[in-house]
Amino acid sequence: METLIYTALFAPLVGSLFAAMFGMSPKTLLTGVVTSLLLFVSFVASVLLLQHVMAVGPVHATLMDWIVAGDMRIPFGFSVDEVTAVMMVVVTLVSTVVHIYSNGYMEHDKGFNRFFSYLSAFVFSMLVLVMSDNFLGLFIGWEGVGVCSWLLIGFWYHRKDESRDVNPSISPAWAANEAFIMNRIADLGMLIGIFLIYWNVGSLQYDQVFASVGQMSHGLLVAIGIFLFIGAMGKSAQFPLHTWLADAMEGPTPVSALIHAATMVTAGVYLVIRAHPLYSAIPEVGYFIAVVGTFVAIFAASMALVNRDLKRIIAYSTLSQLGYMFAAAGLGAYWVALFHLAAHAFFKALLFLGAGNVMHAMHDELDIFKMGGLKKVMGWTYAYMGIASLALAGIWPLAGFYSKDTILEVAFNEHTYGIWFVLWLTAGLTAFYSFRLVFLTFWSDERYKEYGFHPHEVQKYVLWAMAPLAILAVIFGWWKEEFMAFVTRLLPAYEMNEHTHHMLGVLIVVTLAIAIGGIVVAYLMYHKRLRRNPKIEASLPYRILSNQYYIPVFYDKAFAKPYAELSDIAWKEIDMQVVDATVDGIAKIVEESGDESRKMQNGNLSDYLKWMAAGALILAVLALVAALKS
Amino acid sequence: MIGLSHYLILSAILFSIGLVGVIRRKNLLMLFFATEIMLNAANVAFAAISSYYHDLSGQMFAFFIIAVAASEVAVGLGLLIVLYKKYGTLDLDNYTMLEG
Amino acid sequence: METFAFYLFSILIIGLFAVTVLSRNVLYAMTSLAAGMVLISGLFFLLGADFLGVVQLIVYVGAVMALYAFAMMFFDATSVIKEKNSSATTVFLLGGLSAVLLVVIFAAPSIGGNLQPLYPSPDGASNPQAVGLVLFTKYLVPFEVAAVMLLVAMIAGIILAGKKMEHRITSSEEENSGEKEMK
Question: Which phi-psi region, left, alpha or beta, contains residue A235 (left: φ > 0; alpha: ψ -120 to 50)?
Fold first, then answer.
């Protein structure tokens, strides 16, 4: 079984290193094929591991002792239990699809090899993150995915900066730095959490930490829970650290599908699920998490309502769905959060890849107001995105229906009707903006002709590669019972009470109703042609929404500008006047003393002899002093 | 009674005389003489210690020092002759090839 | 008797060597050096190192001094040497200080008395016998190496000072002309 673990873990690393060897050379198809194959190997190994875990139980492997210093002993170990197995299969499946897809998508890109190197490195880091059996390994993976995300968002780093009005994310390089820095802020919180754990438990192994939850004081648990959640907030882009996710759409679309929809951003949710014994002990923090998640769900959905950028809409919907996951996890229904995580990974990756197809066809145009009527030329993509949008909107019998509906039931069951109501409303908004996107892109009048685009369908193998995701987006929800039975072997089971059971039918109908309602509204508004109302677009709420509540601007003014000025002072006043001056002074002293002592070397042998005698004398004095001391 | 220290002090004085010669004289030949004095000072010290501790190692070293001194004189005088032929002087102040 | 001899030798040696170091005339310097060497061999005899004293006489007074004497034929030896002697104070300060220091350092272990003989002299053997025993057993390898070194030095001396060599190290004019005459 250890072989399987290492195969699953290291195959992407091998692929990454292989592609890195050709990193600077022009495109070689080989790198794409090799990395995809290795990813497939990793996927197969993950599936076998899943089967093994199902049949036998968790597997554990220790690669080596990593840090051994005094009382501190941190092995570099991996454990594959129910949650990890699910995460591994999801990650490797989506990664494999995205790798194959990228072969087509990045076909004409100069950085083809580099791209695959980064992408495989990301998968490796993500696997370290989910497979590690201790918090430190998780943190390594956490940082690893952060670095890969930075590399991939800024993949087209050579593009120029633009003003915020032209491009809300300014430039890929800017967006990459923003993502990285936001995550650093959050990681500080997470590190403090890990330090607190180590300080109080003396170990970072999951099993030991969670075993000692009972002995820790309540206040300490709350502190650890909150600090870890801050880390999760950064990675999963929860308010107020959410701005980077939408800007991260500057990266290539397969990256958005893999990293910023399916895998990396769910790491925060994974962390909360992983630390469920901790969070179960502190329900008030859990409630806080649920509230944040709920807020982000509707907050992000509202921004998606008016956005015109194809990828940004999907990014906001990702944000919104992450909010759902946190709401579920915060309310104690960890398995539901994991279920939604997996389902979301499938349909959101599919949605992004579909969006990538559209982008490809429209020559990197992202404005959905300039599209329309694409279903005639891009039938397959239309079908895929339709399926994904239906799943996202939560229409029976697709995957999203099962997972999202369960979250709503949980919220109802917990008597947190406020949360339930907001999430319910968000479900309607989700349906509306998803289908606004679909109708504006694939239905209505063919506006692209005005702009001189000649859309075409992508390569056949790319479409085939997307098929597994589409199938899973449809059928994944049907395995809800099996999934629950499997993961609740590790996670706490969640029981609905009598009252909820009675109301179940009503709840489902109500939820479905608002989802269908959202779709119908979108259909009425957009299925024929793009209707724009200048009055609404000029109104204050619309402007607030389309400017993302002015939060990026606020961050810019409140944090970035003062910090830049502070740095300016530090540079010109402190660094140049104090630090540089000191260093230059030392150099000057050395130079001048060298100039002076150079005169000693005058070429006269007799003088040299004198110096030699003086040196010998000094040595003799030193010897005497040393002898007297001892 | 003459003790070991007497010899050692004599040796030190002779060594210092040699040292003075080395750093004072400018003529290369005189430098060689001064070097011989220093080597002999060492020999005296070796022989004295050897004698007072009843250990022949000191005398052995004195032999080897004499051998080294003889070699040094042979090679050194050869070099001196070459130098004298080339520059016509043995005064150290005239050799400034080493100036950096 | 021994005390008297030691002090006599010491004073004479110091005086002669001082003449060597301070004299302006090379001939005086060399003569007094040779005399000092002879007296040092006297010290060796006093110390019971008979063989060493003999070697001192033969090698130093016989060979080395003869070499110097011959070498001086090449130089303008008889003339008084003109030297620019810079500040004598520093020179004597350095010399004096090192003398004091050396005395202190040398005296320290012998007063402490913590030295142990490594190869004690064999009993009942005269000094040359004992020297021979030690030299050809414990110090055989250094002895052979010293022999090779002397050979090398001899060859080096011949080459450096020699005139009839095919590959000359020097290239002065007079040497070339001299060579022609010889031929």
Answer: alpha
